[in-house]
Amino acid sequence: MAIIIYSTPACSYCTQAKKYFRENRIPFTEYDVSKDQRRAEEMVRKSGQTGVPVIDINGRTIVGFNKTEIERLLR
Known about the structure:
CATH superfamily: Glutaredoxin
Mean pLDDT: 96
Order of helices and strands: EHEHEEH
Structural class: alpha+beta
CATH class: Alpha Beta
Helix content: 40-55%
InterPro entries: Glutaredoxin, Grx-like_ET, Thioredoxin-like_sf
Strand content: 15-25%
Protein name: Glutaredoxin domain-containing protein
Organism: Paralvinella palmiformis
Number of helices: 3
Shape: globular
Number of domains: 1
CATH architecture: 3-Layer(aba) Sandwich
GO molecular function, one term: electron transfer activity
């Protein structure tokens, strides 16, 4: 399973998402889009959004910290 979180340091929902994955021992890759323009552009291509977090679970994109949708995609 491949999980990518596009985030920024000041985003409280990003912090909640990362905490959720850590508490559930679910590995993820994090990209700080405030420091990585290439990843920011990648995030916008995937989601059509500039807001964070954007979470990619096996190619399926979630905008925001939507725990219900995350759990559905993790099944």
